[in-house]
């Protein structure tokens, strides 16, 4: 290859190698710009399916143009070989920097990661998911400018099972998200998880799970099921903010992670959300009157707790206004019905018992009427109890919420008065605190709740404050539950 000219690029020297092939430094004959040329291994070049996918993806990937993304100049086929021609960046990939332990402080770490997140954010807005974020795919060049490289490569290789069997596994195991390990559909939040693991390794100097000493199966099982070790157990000097950012980014459930890279970036950098217009994004500079009031977990303190929210996008409520309207109508119907029943019953009593009634009844007739009314009241009470029983069963059994806890509906839907009316005070307290527990809140003051949640297999204590993680549904439900506890 050395000395050859391929598509106007003269191959100068080899600068790297990897699982997919060799990388060479080349120079364009007329533009005189340098480029990196990746020559793919024969198992890729000789695969018809891969070749078709390769050329198909080229159009999309070549359009990615961002300062924090290594630009792809061309995808070509030459003499039976597939080549990727990309921007040449003189610098070091993050895996080498980590290995050399040359990073200086958290400011440097934050700068590198936030720039990479900027590049990822741009790609995600173009509907491109990287799928293989890891330190070796982030390069730090001149002026500490970081760039993400190898977009789309993982998608190409993962689309063909035969290529996996050939021994090349794209999407390095240690950086895979749980959904990626399980073979599920992935989206931008999978890249966020991988970036969280990358940040962990950048700060700690090592991975949370070691694939060098453990089998792939053990590592995959830990990714899906095990609690991520606290980065501060390895490097105590790591700030709480970065440690919490890692925990949020690497949540097992994608819904609990940062919903986009901008939120991740803003959380670790302290900058305001550059997107600005994201619906339902909380901003620390909100007017005090518009800030959401949160109920303190564990206890029923009279103090109002305000969340210091990062720019965190929460799920948009579905048809909340319709639910409120319907609930109001039902309430009016029930209230009106109660008035009518009360009026009828009171009229019956007057007819039977009033001394002013024109018609007089014998004692036996009056007793008979009383028994009829008693029977009717018992029948109505039984019907009401059965109805309430069915309602409570429908809450706990008929809904299949994919969330842990005794009352998963408290995090999944807007609760109504009927959902709470027949719960005991203890049950209400558990329901309320489960909302916080699902986000990893550390219970500290209520011994009963500490004991209860420590015995729940799904509960993992992580954060001193989870208010910024609560969805609009959960905030609304907390207010309603609190009103029933009082």
What is the CATH topology descriptor of the largest domain? Transferase(Phosphotransferase), domain 1
Radius of gyration: 31 Å
The percent range for strand residues is 5-15%
Based on the coordinates given, report the CATH architecture of the largest domain.
Answer: Orthogonal Bundle
Characterization of the model:
The chain is α+β, with helices and mostly antiparallel strands and 486 residues long. It folds into 3 domains: 5-87, Phosphorylase Kinase, domain 1; 92-273, Orthogonal Bundle (Transferase(Phosphotransferase), domain 1); 361-485, Methane Monooxygenase Hydroxylase, Chain G, domain 1 (Up-down Bundle), CATH 1.20.58.1690. Helices cover 45% and strands 11% of the residues. The strands form 3 sheets. A 6-stranded antiparallel sheet has the order 1-2-3-4-6-5. Helix 16 (425-437) packs antiparallel against helix 18. The relative contact order is 0.07. Residues 159-171, 271-296, 300-321, 340-359 and 389-398 have low confidence and may be disordered.
Looking at this protein, list some descriptive labels.
486 residues; six-stranded antiparallel sheet; Methane Monooxygenase Hydroxylase, Chain G, domain 1; Transferase(Phosphotransferase), domain 1; 45% helix; 18 helices; 3 domains; three-stranded antiparallel sheet; alpha+beta; Phosphorylase Kinase, domain 1; 11 strands; elongated
């Amino acid at each position: 290859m050395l000395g050859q000219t391929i598509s106007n690029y003269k191959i100068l020297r080899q600068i790297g190698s990897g699982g997919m092939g060799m990388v060479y430094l080349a120079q364009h004959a007329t533009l005189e710009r340098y480029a990196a040329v990746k020559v793919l291994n024969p198992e890729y070049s000789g695969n018809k399916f891969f070749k078709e996918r390769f050329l198909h993806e080229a159009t999309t990937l070549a359009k990615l143009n961002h300062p924090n993304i290594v630009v792809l100049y061309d995808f070509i086929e030459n003499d039976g070989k597939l080549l990727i021609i990309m921007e040449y960046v003189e610098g070091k990939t993050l895996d080498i920097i980590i290995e050399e332990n040359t990073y200086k402080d958290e400011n440097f770490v934050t700068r590198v990661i936030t720039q990479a997140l900027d590049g990822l954010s741009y790609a995600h807005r173009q509907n491109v998911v990287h799928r293989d974020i890891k330190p070796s795919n982030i390069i730090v060049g001149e002026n500490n400018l970081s760039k993400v490289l190898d977009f789309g490569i993982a998608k190409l290789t993962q689309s063909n099972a035969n290529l996996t069997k050939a021994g090349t596994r794209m999407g390095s195991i240690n950086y895979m998200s749980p959904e990626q390990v399980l073979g599920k559909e992935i989206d931008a939040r999978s890249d966020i998880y991988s970036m969280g693991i990358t940040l962990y390794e950048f700060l700690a100097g090592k991975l949370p799970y070691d694939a060098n000493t453990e089998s792939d199966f053990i590592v995959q099982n830990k990714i899906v099921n095990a609690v991520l070790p606290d980065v501060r157990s390895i490097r105590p000097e790591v700030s709480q903010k970065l440690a919490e950012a890692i925990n949020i980014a690497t949540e097992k459930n994608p819904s609990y992670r940062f919903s986009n890279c901008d939120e991740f970036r803003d959380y670790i950098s302290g900058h305001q959300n550059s997107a600005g217009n994201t619906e339902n994004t909380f901003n620390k500079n909100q007017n005090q009157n518009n800030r959401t009031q949160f109920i303190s977990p564990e206890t029923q303190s009279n103090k109002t707790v305000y969340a210091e929210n990062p720019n965190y996008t929460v799920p948009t409520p579905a048809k909340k206004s319709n639910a409120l309207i319907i609930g109001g109508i039902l309430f009016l119907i029930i209230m009106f019905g109660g008035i009518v029943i009360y009026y009828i019953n009171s009229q019956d009593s007057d007819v039977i018992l009033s001394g002013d009634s024109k018609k007089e009844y014998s004692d036996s007739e009056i007793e008979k009427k009383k028994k009829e009314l008693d029977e009717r009241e018992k029948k109505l009470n039984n019907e009401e109890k059965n109805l309430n029983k069915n309602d409570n069963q429908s809450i706990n059994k008929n809904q299949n919420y994919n969330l842990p806890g005794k009352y998963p509906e408290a995090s999944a839907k807007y609760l109504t008065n009927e959902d709470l009316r027949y719960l005991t005070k203890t049950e209400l307290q558990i329901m309320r605190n489960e909302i916080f527990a699902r986000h990893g809140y550390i219970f500290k003051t209520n011994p009963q709740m500490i004991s209860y949640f420590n015995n729940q297999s799904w509960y993992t204590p992580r954060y001193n404050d989870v208010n910024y993680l609560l969805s609009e549904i959960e905030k609304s439900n907390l207010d309603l539950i609190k009103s029933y506890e009082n």
